[in-house]
Amino acid sequence: MTRHLRSDVDLNPQEYLRVLDLAQQLKRHPEHYRDKLKGRSIAVIFSKQSTRTRVSFEVGIWQMGGQPLILTSSGSTGMQMGRGESTHDTAKVMARYVDAIAIRTFGQNEVDELAKHAGIPIVNALTDLYHPCQALADTLTLRERFGETRGLKLVYVGAGNNVAHSLMLAGPRAGYDVVVACPREVPPRPRVLKRAQEDAKRFKTRVRVERDVHKAVKGAHAIYTDTWVSMGQDSEADALRQKLQDYQVNAALMEEARPDAIFLHCLPAHRGEEVLDEVMDGRWSAVFDQAENRLHVQKALLLLLLGIESWS
Ligand code: CP
Ligand code: NVA
Predict the structure, then answer these.
(1) CA of residue 76 to ligand 2 center, whole Å
(2) Which of 41, 53, 60, 166 could form an S-S bond across to 98 if both were Cys, CB 3.0 to 4.6 Å?
């Protein structure tokens, strides 16, 4: 069966931890994995901008001896997708050339369609709904800082967006509780919340939404935030900034969490909006470890999805 990472739910808790274990091995001994992708080509397609995702996939594939193909979906040097070639046909054609595809796009349906028709592993490199590679890197960062993830409390402060959704699904898989502190007008999608809470019950963790950010961060091991305006939301930018202004992460808020709490952000950060310099550059900040960990988790993920390393 072809394996994918369409969203976080494609991994069960054992598999989720396996990705993290392998990522830690890869981080410690990258030289042991130097030729693992020899002779393989992996396409990474972008319909939205990127720094971390693009560079970490390209470098990671190269470090394991593979060929990364970085493609844009539109523009004069972009793929025919940008001129209307169907996802179905694109999937069928790409599968004749490459061994796996990672894609960053708008609609989750594009990722699901590719997975349905390509017959090769498809990785969600961010959609409007999920950012599972990010949540893997975030969870690895939590593990590094606290030794293990079971029993931790992560509080996401901000808009109920793709990053929040993936964290809500990652928590139950890695054993930590997730609280989303957001205004009433910008909640996570009810369907995602329902799935996250079902998973939380099954895997003995908790996922909940809280309006009061001060109440939410009590006892938190990690406070996480993301941009108030995600890619593709430019027309709503002013309204979102208005609604989210009480949800800024500053030093005073960090002081309300546990004394050993860390600060996480998927980046890019909008300093002065969702977070202040005093936090980004302060003692709590683990944001650059997080960014580095994208590299290690994605390398691990590709080896597992391609069946080069085993899941157990
Ligand atoms: N965090 C993240 O996905 O960053 P990029 O948008 O730079 O890829
Ligand atoms: N929520 C942000 C994440 C960027 C990595 C966005 O979708 O733009």
Answers:
(1) 25
(2) 41
User: Does the pTM exceed 0.90?
Assistant: yes
Q: What does the alpha-carbon distance between residue 103 and residue 126 come to, in Å, rounded to a whole number?
A: 7
**From the alpha carbon of 291, which atom of ligand 1 is closest?**
1
CA of 123 to the centre of ligand 1 (A): 15
**242: containing domain:** 134-291
Cα dist from 111 to 80, 94, 114, 182, whole Å: 17, 14, 5, 27
CATH number at residue 37: 3.40.50.1370
The rounded Å distance from CA 28 to ligand 1 centre is 23
Q: Please tell me the number of the ligand nearest to residue 134's CA.
A: 1
Same domain, 108 and 160: no
Q: Is 212 within a domain?
A: yes
Q: Which residues form ligand 2's pocket by a CB distance below 6 Å?
A: 126, 161-163, 226-227, 230-231, 266
Count Cβ atoms below 10 Å from residue 33 Cβ, excluding itself: 20
State the ligand closest to the CA atom of 53. Answer: 1
List beta partners, residue 179: 155, 208
Kindly report the length of the chain. 312
| pLDDT by position in tens, the chain (length 312) | 999 999 999 999 999 999 999 999 999 999 999 999 999 999 999 999 999 999 999 999 999 999 999 999 989 999 999 999 999 999 999 999 999 999 999 999 999 999 999 999 999 999 999 999 999 999 999 999 999 999 999 999 999 999 999 999 999 999 999 999 999 999 999 999 999 999 999 999 999 999 999 999 999 999 999 999 999 999 999 999 999 999 999 999 999 999 999 999 999 999 999 999 999 999 999 999 999 999 999 999 999 999 999 999
Cα(98)–Cα(77) distance, integer angstroms: 19
User: What atom in ligand 1 is closest to the CA of residue 53?
Assistant: 8
